[in-house]
């Protein structure tokens, strides 16, 4: 990637989007580790493991490769149709499926992620890729119609980084579609032995002005919104736009999931730009009944008319997304939300708090002093509040944890600007 010098304004815009720390003004954009990250001990006897899901159901997992033939890839048009990788999680019969847990990510995906995070010497890629999950490939699905939640990862991160939340929701009775968007992660494996890297990151980092950088990130969010509508088309067999070309229909490999999904109960959540994408997807697709933004700047803005009264949860770090913080998109778009809404911030949290990485890093003694919330609490807070939100708004189960502050979660502040 061409390394160029850029202004503080552009760096500030990228810092809101990239999960990587960004170099100071006047220097080249660089992927550098957080300051004073604690060193990890030897890993010889360590196997990383996702937190055990709390729901009553076993978990199945299946992988889909989807191609939207109505759209060219926005980052590499010569590649042809827009491609997506989707991990489907679902409640399953205990004891069914493969004897070994489903894999976490490929070793190459892990190596690319760790190298870009400057953690290649701290984490062997085999350690990360070998993370133990709780899902089983080819497990027999539980009969019935279940709510669907679509998840979208942070910019530059692959979908595996939201595995903990995916497993948690599936264990509670949700079908989960965890989406990887082509050319928007440091490395995602696709069929044919391909591992696609982050062309969109290069475009964002080469933006000459802050306005240009924000336009790139808005393009990411809007593109993901279109991706998600396509995924819903494929999974339900019903297109939002009956006149749109595509592959939805009986021939789609996703069509088999239609018998498991209640198309009247669909939600979306995402981390970072994936959270912004949840709002963008809701703005364009009324089938999505509820949404969650986990620590993501609203580069693609909520419409002035709101989201037609649909519920939305904003869950972020106290340092980055409290009222009065640098990211002004949260208070501005909060005012546009016209349905049930909550703005929650978490003390001692960082941008990564809401994904798998703090949970896994803690198991080998790696921590970031700038975000001292423990890995255990990071996972618990994300699981509890996102799960409660979808229980309340897709299943009609009142969850008091959403009513206000609780003694059990002293880190969480309810903001009412």
Structural summary, described in words:
Keywords: Hydrolase, Lipid degradation, Lipid metabolism, Signal. Helix 1 packs parallel to helix 6 and helix 4 packs across helix 11. The N and C termini lie far apart (about 40 Å). It is built from 11 helices and 12 strands. Helices cover about 30% and strands about 20% of the residues. Strand 1 and strand 2 form a beta hairpin. The strands form 2 sheets. It has a 10-stranded mixed β-sheet, sandwiched between helices. Strands 6-7 form a two-stranded antiparallel ribbon. The N terminus is likely disordered. With about 425 residues, it is α/β, with parallel strands linked by helices. It has a single domain, classed as Rossmann fold, CATH 3.40.50.1820.
